[in-house]
Each structure stands twice: as structure tokens, then as C-alpha cells.
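Trying the structure run again after the queue cleared.
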Amino acid sequence: MEWKEFPFTKKLDEPEEIVEECVEKRSEMLMGFKGNPKVDKKKFDEALRPSMMTMSLTGESTLYPRIGELVEEAKRRGMITFLVTNGSLPKRLEKVDPLPWQLYVSVYGPDPKTHYEIARPKIPKAWVQLNKTLELLPSLGTRKVIRLTMIKGYNMKDPEGYSKLIEKAEPNFVEVKAYEWVGESQSRLPREAMPWMEDVRGFARKISMHTGYEIRGEFEPSGVVLLAA
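Done. C-alpha cells:
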């Protein structure tokens, strides 16, 4: 079988249905903790009322043409929203209204060759589209993040090349994050492809040197270093 995200089916899920189902399924997943005496009751009750929603993981989020309405629905329920995109649909991103509270753009390589090797895009001119998205970012009135997922031996190179892309996008933050050797990725990449935290720190320092962005924090369990303008 072949996974197909585009073109869409004739009927799209309603934004209200998507958010409602997400909250409901989350509650079902957490319900088993209710009777556990070790679980803090206040935290459990708070977990049943999520305060944020992230549009990410499977597929490209902006393929859903009603992203703005999805953001609005989450906001109506008191949630802030995060949108993660690979930058392949700049025209769609430009029309998102309202924008999410925070927008992430994943950058997979510092040059076209690396981008195509790592991202393996299905669409033509994916590198051109990504750069159009990066050029669009300064005009978008929301918090913006460039996320660099570092794969040792593959795309953990040419910090100056990454820095030129960052300078084009003018994001508020840059995340330099280690690829994690977990799940299905273990069948695609060797364990050595996962950088150590010191590798991530070293690469983040190089990005900082080339861009002027300052290192503001890190979280070792996730293998991530945060830089800010």
C-alpha cells in the first residue's frame, strides 16, 4: 500500500470534530491513572483539560486547508496552539488566519543535496519552497522557531550554511535538537546517528557564533539547546 496525503478526500473533518476527538481520546488514554494512589489528583484533573495543542507528527500540517479554523477552535477552548511545518507549502502558510501562538519550521539540511537526502520530499522544488517559507517568516505576526534536528554523520555539518537560512527567516528562536534513536527510526538509521548532548552543544555554539543568536537554555533529556535573538 502507498500512503497518500494529497489530493484530499471529498469530505474533510470539521475543526470542531478534530479538537473534540483529540481531547476525548487523550482523556481515554489518561483514565487508567485515576485510581492510582500515587497520582496527584489536581494534576490529573488538569491533564483532562489540556491548555495547548500541537499540530505536528504525521504528515504536513498545512495540507489541512482549515488550519486557521482549527487554531480558532483550540483558542475558543482556552488552548494555545503550536504548528509544525516542513515549509513545503508557503502559499498555504501565508493564508493561515489566525496564526498559531507559535510556528515551527523544520530545516533538514544546510543545502539542497542534504535537504533532499534527509527529507525525501514527494513534491518538486521542495528546497525552493522551503526557502520561500523562510523568506515569508519575518512578515508573520507570531512567535517563530527554526528547528534543526541533528543527525550525526548525515546533516550535522556546515553551521554557516544553516546560519544563512536562519538569518533569512529572522526567527525568535532556534532549536538545535538531537535526533532520537527510537521507534521505527531504529530500522532506518544506526544508533551512532544519535548525537550526544555535547555534540549538540558544540553545534549550537557554532550556530550562535555565525548568527549572533545567544544560547538561552538546554534540556538534556530531549537533547535540545535553545537559542534566541
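The domain at 101-228 is CATH 3.20.20.70 (TIM Barrel). Worth checking whether this holds up in the mutant runs.
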